[in-house]
């Protein structure tokens, strides 16, 4: 039973004029003119096999039937091949990467265990960990000394005999930092030596210039969570997976609530996405990397603003505004009036959210160019006189 303690939660501040989070997101969702830079979603897919496969699935009325409860075998095999984890690994197809995170932490953690995360980060992980573990240590990593990411040295300093799980978001939302092969190997050795688990969230893996899987070096101590929301552009379809040893996956399957399977139309799209990946991946990467340059040029024009991490290995990064004297929430509201949806930092950090605006750039170039102009206008209009 989940204890009645207060769970870790992100501090979500609503823009003016909205009473609830749901009301706000309903507004931005239905505004067809809105430029979507606030949720790291990917809007760069054109009409392609992903779309057509889902349309065919709907026309065939596939949704009338339940799919296999653990995912279509072909889809499972393709995900494992995508990661080159075909030997000694098992997989479960879930309703998104976030569900995978929840299931794995629910299964692994006991009430006496401790968890290590980082700040900034994906704060829903802290929320889930606080439900099932005794204590969550969120390590501050917003500084040049650690390279704006959680290092093996920082984990060693913060771990204890009850540490059971270390969360690695790689590349890191919201900063876009990524781990080197040497760092991943060191984390893997640490996990083996201390009999703990690495929860390796690789949601943004395909945007990275270089990426390395912890599962390659510590397969029995790694749970890898996989998402179709970002590079595949399927955020609204809610499909993902988790991968680990057969023993760990079998254990996690015992607590699955959604035992009638994941959305069948989404799975058809996922199959097509993996099969067609080589035809569109380079184009999306090239576009996002070019879009970063446009934003970087705009930020460099603003006195007091800077990019802590550049280039980003994700499809997002943060713009530090602290020295400008302008509040990120005020910039987000200014941009919203100009039909640009971006997020202030409180959503991804308890300690540093007051410093930065997070923006994603996996959108058409024209939207990024508009952001570059309107961002500079926002600082000029809002900067203290």
Keywords, please?
385 residues; alpha/beta; 7-stranded mixed sheet; 3-stranded antiparallel sheet; 38% helix; globular
Question: How many E strands?
Answer: 12
Strands ordered across the widest β-sheet: 2-8-7-6-5-3-4
Tertiary shape: globular
Low-confidence region ranges: none
- Strand content bin: 5-15%
H and E string: HEHHEHEHEHEHEEEHHEHEEEH
End-to-end separation in angstroms reads: 54 Å
State the oligomer.
Answer: single chain
In terms of structural class, how would the helical and strand content be classed?
alpha/beta
Polypeptide structure, described:
There is one protein chain. By secondary structure, the chain is of the alpha/beta class. Helix content is 38%, strand content 15%. It has helices at 21-30, 49-59, 73-83, 97-108, 124-132, 152-158, 181-194, 246-253, 264-300, 328-337, 365-382, and strands at residues 35-36, 90-94, 114-119, 135-140, 163-169, 197-201, 222-227, 240-244, 316-320, 340-341, 343-344, 356-360. The strands form 3 sheets. The protein has a 7-stranded mixed beta sheet with strand order 2-8-7-6-5-3-4, sandwiched between helices. A 3-stranded antiparallel beta sheet has the order 9-12-11, covered by helices on one side. Strand 3 (114-119), helix 5 (124-132) and strand 4 (135-140) form a beta-alpha-beta unit. Helix 2 packs antiparallel against helix 9 (264-300). The longest helix is centred in the last third of the chain and has 37 residues, at 264-300. The model has no long low-confidence stretch (mean pLDDT 96).
């Amino acid at each position: 039973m989940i204890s009645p303690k207060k769970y870790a939660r992100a501090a979500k501040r609503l823009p003016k004029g909205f009473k609830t989070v749901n009301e706000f997101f309903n507004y931005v969702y239905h505004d067809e003119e809105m430029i979507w830079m606030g949720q790291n979603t990917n809007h760069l897919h054109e009409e392609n096999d992903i779309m057509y496969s889902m349309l065919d699935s709907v026309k065939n009325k596939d949704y009338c039937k339940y799919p296999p409860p653990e995912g279509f075998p072909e889809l499972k095999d393709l995900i494992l091949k995508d990661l080159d984890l075909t030997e000694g690994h098992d997989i479960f197809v879930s309703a998104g990467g976030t569900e995978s995170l929840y299931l794995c932490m629910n299964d692994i953690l006991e009430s006496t265990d401790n968890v290590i995360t980082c700040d900034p980060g994906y704060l829903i992980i802290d929320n889930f960990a606080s439900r099932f573990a005794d204590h969550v240590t969120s390590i501050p990593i917003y500084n040049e000394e650690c390279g704006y990411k959680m290092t093996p040295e920082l984990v060693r300093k913060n771990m204890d005999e009850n540490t059971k799980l270390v969360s690695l978001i790689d590349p890191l939302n919201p900063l876009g930092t990524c781990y080197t092969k040497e760092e991943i190997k060191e984390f893997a050795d640490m996990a083996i030596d201390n009999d703990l688990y690495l929860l390796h969230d690789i949601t943004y893996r395909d945007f990275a210039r270089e990426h390395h899987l912890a599962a390659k070096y510590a397969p029995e101590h790694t749970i890898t969570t996989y998402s179709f929301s970002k590079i595949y552009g399927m955020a609204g379809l809610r499909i993902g997976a988790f991968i680990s040893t057969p023993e760990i996956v079998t254990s996690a399957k015992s607590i699955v609530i959604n035992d009638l399977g994941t959305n069948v139309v989404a799975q058809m799209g996922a199959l097509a996405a993996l099969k067609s990946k080589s035809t569109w991946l380079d184009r999306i990467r090239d576009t996002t990397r070019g879009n970063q340059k446009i934003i970087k040029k705009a930020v460099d024009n603003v006195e007091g603003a800077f990019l802590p991490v550049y280039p980003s290995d994700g499809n997002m990064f943060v713009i530090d505004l602290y020295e400008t004297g302008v509040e990120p929430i005020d910039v987000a509201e200014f941009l919203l009036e100009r039909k640009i949806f971006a997020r202030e930092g409180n959503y991804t950090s308890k300690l540093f959210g007051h410093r930065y605006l997070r923006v994603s750039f996996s959108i058409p170039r024209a939207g990024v160019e508009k952001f570059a102009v309107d961002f500079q206008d926002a600082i000029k209009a809002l900067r203290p006189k």
